Structure formats: structure tokens, C-alpha cells
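STRUCTURE:
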């Protein structure tokens, strides 16, 4: 390979990463713009194929256009077929080397696409811009990594590249960039020493021109922090863009018994979208809200109903649980039952109330609680024992896949973690009054009429409904102060 050395000139972070190819490592390379991610991906694939005969390598991107303009172009332009002794088949998108090794290029944008790849066998898998895929897709793809007895000295290796602002940011942040073992599964913890993060940014890459560096340096602050410096808590499209861990996260403390309390519940049925229950209390003097406990479950309703019943006493007692009104409707998957999920929970002693599920205005109210400036701290804080919501809230993004002629104000529900925001929205909007909004009135939307009737009927003296309008003082937060 000495005569080919001129084609391989890795810089320091790339050299460090190349040492792990074939070592059975799960690697994340990059973390910022301009770090030479695509160049590294193809360099690693070519070097491995030259060194290990009959090696099967797959390179993946979300779409084929990205694959063709990035990885495939990088291969064909920088590694000549006559010099490196391979043939590229444009019909099947694969490069076959003279020693029997091959690089296969495939796009993958969904679980069905991942399932097709999952049935094949590879020893080296490289996913460029991997955080654009969901964690479930990434997990399925790893099923293709298999060791073979005929390939000596190479342990299946998984390489991923990316920078902040993708669908799986929470996964990469908690597994690689800033490992949080409380988020890891038992299997992941068993192999935690195999997880490697090799940071690389534009300042590490001598191949980048000054113009690109200057462009990154002149970006607006949040985008600059993410793309130039590789910060994973701020990025373009961040939904809760006022999030500041120094202000919004506090140490756990004992909630006084006389404080008002309520819970927000979002029902789910999968690991990506689990059932989430959040406990919130309000300081009666400062009016600050504190999220002081969280419950997450991704199994059936029998289990989470029993769990929540068991948590009703002591400091986690539930004066009221605000849930999406749709829980009171018998859904298709519940046709076998004669009652809705909400009725089952109420029958089992859980104090459910239909929440305000108006999304756009709900997000505005929640963001108002999170707002802060140089003179005012936020009026909503989260205790540090609530690690799931702390990890998920700051990485949620605006809805970018739906256009309607105006700036989008809704949350992207495709991403894992939106359940935590929904549960928080239910309890904050329905259970408490923002101090500065007590005189603001908003139109009553049709979709919350039924929920309002439930609340007004339960607490008629404290509601303030007038000519189709309901003030925040009287909307869904009617009885909290009495508990």
C-alpha cells in the first residue's frame, strides 16, 4: 500500500478514528460542520477493503441523492478505479475490489428500508449524517453487522458521522457526545467501553478553505454554536430556544405539603413514544412551577395504571392528572374493550381530568413559563432527578415537514421525546395560571369544547366563561389551589 499513500492523507482526528476500524467499536465521528466526515467515511471503507480480502462494507445515507453527491462521488473522484483495482457498478451501486472486498451503497430513510438491509451481512457499516435517522432505524441496521470465520483479524465495526440538528440528536448526545448512562439499556451498558466519540470540526480539517470557515463564523449565534463548535444543546430549529440548563435545572428538594400539585399524562405504547407522567408543584408565593418527578413506561395500560396507583401516596400523591381528551375516546386498538383508557384509569382510582390539548396556543403558554431575560428567571424549573425530560426537551425541533403558508409553530411529532413536552404542556396549561396572563382571554377552540364542559361542570363557581371566551384563570386550572 506504500505506492498508494499519496491518496491517503488523514489529519489528526481522522488518524485517531482509523485506528478503531476493525476493532469491534461503535464510533461516532465529527459532531460539527466541516470536520471531514464524508472524506473520512470513504477513506475508512477503502483502506479496510484493501487490507482485508472479502470484506463486506456498506455505506448509508438517508436519501440516494445525498449518497450519490456525497459518498459515491467522494469514492469515484478521489480513488481511481485503475489505481485501486476495483470496478464500480452504477446499476447496483457497489464497488468490487480485486481481492473480493466490496463497498455497497444504500439509502435508508425508514424502518421498512432498514428491514431490507437488516437481512444482509456486513462487517463494516458506515452511516454518513447518521443522526438524520431515528434511533429505531439505527438499532435495526446494526442487525446486519455479523462476524465471519473466513475473515481473520476484523471485528465488525459500526461507524457513524453527523452534526447537531437531526432526528436522533438525543441518542448521539447521551451515548457519545456527553454520555448519560441513565439513558442506556442494559445491553448498551454491557458494551459501554465499545462506544467511542471522535470529535472533529472545521479547525481540525486543513482541507477546508478560509471562505467556509468565515461563513461558519458569521452565522447567527445558535447555528454557529451547533455547526462551528459542535454544541448539541442549541441548533437551528430548536423548539424551546430559550432553554438554559443553568437556569431551568435545579437540585432536587422536598416539596412543601401545602403547595399546589398536579400531573400531566401523555399516553404512548412504544419505546420511541412511551407513556409519560410528570409531577408539577407551584410555589404559592413566587408562583414558580417545579417539575419534581417523572414516570416513563412503554408497555401496556395495565402496567402503567398499576404503577401510577402505587405512586399515589406520599410525596407523589396525585390531586389531579391532566390527560389528552382523546384518552376518553375508545380507539381502534381498544375496540375489544367496552371502555376508553381514561375510563379504565378512573375506575381504578386515578383522578383523571380532560386537559386543554390546543397545540399552538399551548406551546405559546409553555414557552412563556420557560422564558427568561437578564432581569427575570424562568417561572418553570425542572429538578435534576427528572433526567428524561431534561435530556429530551432541549433537543426537540419545530415541525418542518408541513407547510401551510405561514411560519410553523408546532412541534415535530416524528421525533422521540415529544411525549415529554406534551405531558408538560397538559399540566402547565390546564393546571396552573401564569401570573402575568391572568387577564388575557383567548378564543375557545372547537376541539377543546368537550374538555371545557367537563372542567366547568366539575368546578362551576371557579370558571369564568363568557360569550365563547374562557380566561386562563378559569381554564382547566380550577381546583388545583384547594389541594
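SEQUENCE:
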Amino acid at each position: 500500500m506504500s505506492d498508494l499513500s499519496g491518496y491517503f492523507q488523514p489529519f489528526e482526528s481522522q488518524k485517531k478514528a482509523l485506528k478503531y476500524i476493525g476493532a469491534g467499536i461503535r464510533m461516532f465521528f465529527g459532531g460539527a460542520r466541516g470536520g471531514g466526515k464524508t472524506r473520512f467515511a470513504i477513506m475508512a471503507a477503502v483502506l479496510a477493503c484493501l487490507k482485508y480480502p472479502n470484506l463486506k462494507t456498506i455505506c448509508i445515507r438517508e436519501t440516494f441523492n445525498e449518497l450519490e453527491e456525497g459518498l459515491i462521488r467522494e469514492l469515484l473522484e478521489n480513488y481511481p478505479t485503475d489505481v485501486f483495482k476495483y470496478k464500480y457498478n452504477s446499476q447496483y451501486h457497489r464497488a468490487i475490489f480485486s481481492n473480493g472486498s466490496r463497498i455497497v451503497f444504500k439509502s435508508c430513510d425508514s424502518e421498512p428500508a432498514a428491514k431490507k438491509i437488516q437481512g444482509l451481512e456486513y462487517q463494516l457499516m458506515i452511516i454518513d449524517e447518521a443522526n438524520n435517522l431515528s434511533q429505531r432505524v439505527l438499532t435495526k441496521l446494526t442487525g446486519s453487522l455479523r462476524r465471519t470465520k473466513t475473515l481473520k483479524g476484523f471485528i465488525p465495526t459500526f461507524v457513524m458521522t453527523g452534526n447537531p440538528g437531526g432526528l436522533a440528536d438525543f441518542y448521539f448526545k447521551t451515548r457519545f457526545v456527553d454520555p448519560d448512562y441513565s439513558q442506556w439499556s442494559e445491553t448498551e451498558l454491557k458494551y459501554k467501553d465499545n462506544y467511542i466519540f471522535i470529535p472533529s470540526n472545521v479547525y481540525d480539517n486543513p482541507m477546508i478553505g478560509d471562505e467556509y470557515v468565515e461563513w461558519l463564523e458569521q452565522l447567527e449565534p445558535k447555528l454557529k454554536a451547533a455547526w462551528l463548535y459542535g454544541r448539541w444543546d442549541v441548533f437551528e430549529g430548536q423548539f424551546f430556544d430559550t432553554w438554559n440548563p443553568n437556569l431551568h435545572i435545579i437540585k432536587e428538594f422536598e416539596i412543601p405539603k401545602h403547595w399546589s400539585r398536579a400531573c400531566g399524562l401523555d399516553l404512548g405504547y412504544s419505546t420511541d413514544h412511551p407513556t409519560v407522567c410528570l409531577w408539577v408543584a407551584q410555589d404559592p408565593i413566587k408562583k414558580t412551577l417545579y417539575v419534581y418527578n417523572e414516570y416513563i413506561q412503554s408497555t401496556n395500560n395495565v402496567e402503567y395504571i398499576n404503577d401510577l396507583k402505587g405512586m399515589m401516596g406520599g410525596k407523589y400523591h396525585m390531586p389531579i392528572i391532566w390527560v389528552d381528551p382523546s384518552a376518553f375516546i375508545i380507539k381502534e386498538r381498544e375496540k375489544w374493550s367496552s371502555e376508553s383508557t381514561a375510563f379504565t384509569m378512573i375506575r381504578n382510582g386515578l383522578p383523571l381530568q380532560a386537559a386543554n390539548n390546543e397545540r399552538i396556543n399551548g406551546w405559546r403558554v409553555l414557552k412563556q413559563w420557560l422564558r427568561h431575560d437578564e432581569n427575570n428567571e424562568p417561572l418553570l424549573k425542572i429538578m435534576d432527578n427528572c433526567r428524561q425530560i431534561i435530556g429530551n426537551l432541549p433537543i426537540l425541533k419545530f415541525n418542518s415537514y408541513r407547510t401551510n403558508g405561514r411560519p410553523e409553530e408546532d412541534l415535530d411529532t416524528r421525533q422521540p421525546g415529544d411525549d415529554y413536552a406534551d405531558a408538560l404542556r397538559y399540566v402547565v396549561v390546564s393546571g396552573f395560571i401564569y401570573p402575568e396572563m391572568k387577564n388575557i382571554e383567548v378564543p375557545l377552540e372547537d376541539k377543546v369544547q368537550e374538555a371545557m364542559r367537563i372542567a366547568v361542570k366539575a368546578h362551576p363557581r371557579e370558571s369564568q366563561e363568557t360569550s365563547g371566551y374562557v380566561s386562563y384563570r378559569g381554564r382547566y386550572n380550577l381546583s388545583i389551589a384547594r389541594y
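REMARK: The first strand starts at residue 26 and ends at 31.
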